[in-house]
Structure formats: C-alpha cells, structure tokens
Specification:
Trna Endonuclease, Chain: A, domain 1, 3 helices
C-alpha cells in the first residue's frame, strides 16, 4: 500500500503543498551488467499533482475508513498492440472503497492531452470491470471530469 509517513505529510503541509526534494521516490539503479532490454520499467515516483491528490484526497479518505486501500501505479492494463509491441495503460491510483468496489483514479493537472484521454477511454473498453475516474486539479480545486461505471 502506498502510504506516506506522518513526517512526509507534515513536511508537505509545511511547504505549502509542495513535495520536498528529499522525499521523492527515486528509481533504483540496475545491477552492473544488466541492460534495460527485457527488464520491467523502473518506477518513476509521483509527480506534484499525484502527490497532492494522495495527500489531500486519498490519505484523509483512508484515515476516515472511506477507502480500504490505495496504491500508486498498482496495475497495468493492456490497451492495444502495434506489431509485436503491446501498449499498456498504467493508471495513477488503484483504490478500493469501503464497499470493496475497485476504482481506477487518473489525476490530471491544468492541461489534458488528447492522448491521455484516448488511453483512459481505451482502458475503460479493455477492462470494464472497474469504476474509472479522471480527476483534474485546476484553479485550486479537484474536479471529477470523467467517470465510467
């Protein structure tokens, strides 16, 4: 489960909602002699919008027991294939509500690209068993901009 420590959350609040540089997850270096070919992608850590969403929305909901679980980039959904190369969609958060319904949360900042919307729609078609939500942070507020049940 992706849960930030209390020190991380205190630092986040103290910095006015900005993630301190020392608290970003860093991708591990591969062992000597290992190339990226055939290896799983290295984790990238959260961007500022994702970190804000986790701290302001998900963590308070977890503490209030409205959600039982959440994880950053917890799954990959195959959304297509080009020649021999599969294309995957990796949503920002997988969330389990208190009623045990699984939701996929995709967070967006001020600008949303067409490719981001297309990948979201492709994931809905490829794996319709989840509740999908696209949430945007704009003008200082979180807004639900798309939802598929």
């Amino acid at each position: 489960m992706v849960r930030q420590t209390q020190a991380w959350l205190d630092n986040y609040v103290a910095n006015g909602g900005k993630v301190a540089s020392g608290h970003q997850a860093k991708a591990p270096k591969p062992p000597p002699g290992i190339t990226g070919i055939g290896q799983p992608p290295t984790p990238r850590g959260m961007n500022k919008t994702e970190a804000r969403y986790a701290a302001e929305i998900l963590e308070p909901a977890y503490r209030a027991e409205e959600i039982l679980f959440y994880k950053f980039e917890g799954i990959r959904i195959k959304i297509g294939q080009h020649k021999r190369q599969a294309k995957y969609y990796k949503p920002d958060f997988v969330v389990m509500r208190a009623d045990r319904v699984i939701e996929i949360h995709e967070t967006k900042g001020e600008h949303i690209t067409r490719a981001g919307q297309d990948n979201f729609s492709a994931a809905v078609e490829a794996m319709p068993i989840y509740v999908y939500k696209m949430i945007q942070y704009a003008n200082g507020t979180w807004q639900l901009i798309r939802e598929h049940n």
